[in-house]
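Model it.
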Amino acid sequence: MRELVFLKLGGSLITDKDKAYTPRLDKLAELAREIKTALDSNPNLQVVLGHGSGSFGHVAAKKHGTRDGVQTREQWLGFAEVYFQASQLNRHVVEALVGAGLPAISLPPSASIVSDNRKVVRHNVDVIRRALEAGLLPVVQGDVVFDVSLGGTILSTEDFFAFLTGELAPSRILLAGIEAGVWADFPGRTRLVSRIRSGGGEARAGIGESASTDVTGGMKAKVEQMLALVQKNEGLSAQIFSAEENGFLTRALQGENVGTLLTA
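Modeled.
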């Protein structure tokens, strides 16, 4: 039986989020090798890979307020700038994957999605299905999209994963970043939460936002979105973890809980 996993490489992991337009190229190469190791060790594992924008898209997006809507000429010029910066980072990601021997193919949301108030309403998901069937590694990203109500906006990788979950039914969603998982007392970082169930609220009170520029909401938004997904989709789990230490990404792809597990 094949297992489909959605994996996101967070912007904080693959870029220096506090230095504009700065990729972590050595880290990208290391992560690509870890993905290759996991896929080679399990021929039945399929991955849809997404990545955040980090110090590329988020900096430009905050400057232009793109996520809140795009209407004026100046805002549309900002929309194009955010697209360009997101695509620049995507190129670095795909180059690292190809360099590790992975058959990566970029499928940017800006070229294929129409949303309405940041909910996907049109997307040809068959392209991703065919890529998986062909043994390729589809790569998506946080990106600008045209929006029925807002004119234009930004969809995070998690937004896109939320839509794709209903279409492709993955068994797991893995969110790899620099934080060890979900902290009950962020930014104190003394109490790591090993598991959060969708029905419980006791572990959520101390969850904070992102420590860097993040126009899509940071950790709290990720946790709430993933809990809603696991509650809605039977058998789905999500994990938030750090891939800073070599080997953790491979272990997570192989099924080990190395951070915070989110379940129904």
